Amino acid sequence: MTRTYDDIIHLPHHVSTTHPHMAVSDRAAQFSPFAALTGYDAAIKETARLTDERVAIDEYMKDVLNNKLRIILDRIKEHTQIAITYFQPDEKKNGGSYVTTSGTVKKINEYERIVVMTDDTEIPIDEISSIDGNIFENM
């Protein structure tokens, strides 16, 4: 009884004379996994990313914030340090996040309703949820 590959099992390994030998790293690349769903991982991560809901501010808190902005405007040349927490809407999905910026106020643009910090950060007045600083200790 003859075994199946007895006629070729002892032949030397074939080396092509027309095609160059493939490097091991190139050969391994042939068998790398195929990414059929490109962008799927990014979409899953974006969906899983958490955002905060905007908290509605009552009239009393709006008055407090307006008084603090008036105090800042009156004493803007003193360059006192303050911290402003405001809601920053997310560009890709509903919600957003609350951001706290510390520094000094460069100007308050009442027409455009923005606070401009000395580092040129622009904060919409309608998105501000709190303002803190030593300037308000007497309140």
List keywords for this structure.
139 residues, alpha+beta, SH3 type barrels, 3-stranded antiparallel sheet, 23% helix, 24% strand
Describe the structure.
The chain has helices at 24-30, 40-48, 59-74, and strands at residues 82-89, 96-103, 105-109, 114-117, 122-124, 128-133. With 139 residues, it is of the alpha+beta class. It has a domain at 59-136: SH3 type barrels, CATH 2.30.30. It has a 3-stranded antiparallel β-sheet. Strand 1 and strand 2 form a beta hairpin.
Mean pLDDT value:
86
Distance between the termini: 104 Å
**What's the total helix number?**
3
What general form does the structure show? rod-shaped
The helix/strand class is alpha+beta
Entry summary:
This is YolD-like family protein. The protein is α+β, with helices and mostly antiparallel strands and 139 residues long.
Topology, pairings included?
Elements: H1 24-30, H2 40-48, H3 59-74, E1 82-89, E2 96-103, E3 105-109, E4 114-117, E5 122-124, E6 128-133
Antiparallel strand pairs: 1-2, 1-6, 3-4, 4-5
